[in-house]
Write a structure and sequence with these properties.
heterodimer; A: 293 residues; mainly alpha; MetI-like fold; 2 domains; 13 helices; 74% helix; B: alpha/beta; D-Maltodextrin-Binding Protein, domain 2; eleven-stranded mixed β-sheet; 11 strands; membrane (chain A); transport (chain A); MetI-like (chain A); transmembrane helix (chain A); Polyamine ABC transporter permease (chain A)
Amino acid sequence: MTTATFDLPVGSQKSTSAAGIAIALLLPIALVNAIGFILPVLNLARMSFNEALPGGGIADAFTVANWTGLLQDGFYIELITNSIVVSLGITLATLLVSYPIALYLHRASGAWRTFLTVLVISPLLTSAVVRTYGWIALLADQGPVANAIAAMGFQPPRMMFNTTGVVIGLTEILMPYMILSLMAGFGRLDPKVEEAARTLGATPFRTFRRVILPLTVPGIALGCLLCFVLAISSFITPKLMGGGRVFLLATEIYDQAIVTLNWPLAATLSMLVLIIFGAALAVYSRILRMIEG
Amino acid sequence: MMFARLSIAVSALTIAAVSGASAETVTLTAYSGIFQDHYTKAVIEPFMKKYPDITVQFYGMPNSAQMLGTLRAQKSSPQIDVAILDVSVAKAGTDEGLFDKVDESVSPNVKDLYPNARPEGVAGVGVTFDNLVVIYNTDQVKNAPKSWNALWDKQYEGKLIIPAVPDIQGTTFTIISNKLAGGTDYKSDVSAGIAKIGELAPGVQTWEPKPDVYAPIANGQAAMAIGWNARAQIYSGTSGGKLGVALPEEGRGFQINTINLVKNAPAGDAAKKFIDYALSPEAQAAFTSEMFYAPTNSKTVVAEDALKRTAADDMDKMIDIDWLAVAKIRDSITDQWRRRIIPLSR
């Protein structure tokens, strides 16, 4: 990718040395990437074709049993669809609560904007584990939220150790990423365009739907991609807040790799997550092309 | 994150192993946390006093599976000499050729071990016995439960914690429930036990307590749970009695931790010396008094007060579990939990 920024005139004496420098500069990072990322991924791909023995053993083999087993097993099909649906739900929830904040931040200026931005980013300074425990305390059966609902005369629903808890926890944890992505993508949103829409008689809602929303699509797409990828690969929050009822891809990979010791199955699931990432990226670039095209 | 921490620990360990390469450092891996604290105090420190030229480094890991993963990764150049891990995981490690056999040539104490501390097909031998018991919050449960059936009492609905499979507490509980439900041989069929746990499922608060099952019982988040006796006894003390331990009359689920000699261990004979000491009556008695794991050496003389709090006084009250047979059916048990128990709790 970086090579594209080099200007290489063909045939001249200088160009060979420039190309040499380019290669020399790229070599270290290419090597690090090859050793630190590509090799392990290939290793993982190879592992997914090994045979798992009962009790955690691994036999060197070349079998597609892990893959076919995965795609024929009702439990895993449910797990995969559940992971995708829950992650999409979390992404949508994060977008809905983050969008107004990002829009307000985009319009704010000066010290106030700086202050608010720091406020938005500050949760990232605390580990997700700590914030998850915070949510556990808040949403527990006798916690403040349940007590407040009970005080209003309603029967508090179970909000912890189920999918509700996971969605609430991850939505809050992913909000800073969404807000920052949205703000980064709001570059094209010029206040003058909004003013023009209003002076031409558009209602605030119409202005939003026809002017603001289309202009902010790049930010929305970026934020959704990032949050979806983070949601589907997060495992600490689902592990702590799911109570063992919520089966997601990432938690299942952890269980298979660390508890059951079925590394071939864990590798197969990991490759599947990579495939889902690839699909998410494809959707993202398609959306971007649609906007530009 | 856990992997990052693990890799840092592994590299630190490598450095430590290289700098202490005089072959008189024995690196032991076993459970981190309270096991590490108490084992260091009761066994490792006295050992180092007895053999001043040998240093034992304790490299703690949260569970047996992670230890096996580390041993697997180091197979070509082991950094760990001795590993204490659960018997079913030790069997997997043995099958992969990670361990050397521990027999009379390694330690004369091996001949004094109880027969079930020398499981067939496992390179290591039993170093501690533990058992699965009922634990409860003493504020919420006034009368100490006497039977496993207390868990099925409707008044504790929504206040139960059951660590689900693949955690072996869940596996052990399956076998116990199978027995309670009148199931016959768990090795061929556990469906009666699965159905019985299914009745419990709607009232289970969490299947995956963090950091462990003891904390939420001690602080009152839940009323009743299942847990390991040794740890429960310790937390019963540290929680000021908030956590109660009940040894059910139908018997307790039996678990073995084995001590294993890593193949091509860098410490050589020093590692064997340590294993010999760990199996000796004196070390066994000290650890039983310290943490209430039952001894595996039949010659061990256990102090009276510790005896009552371990499995040691009535081994016939134990529900015998053939862990090597269980290892073969573990996948099927896990499957049945996921399809027939956990969905009932949603």
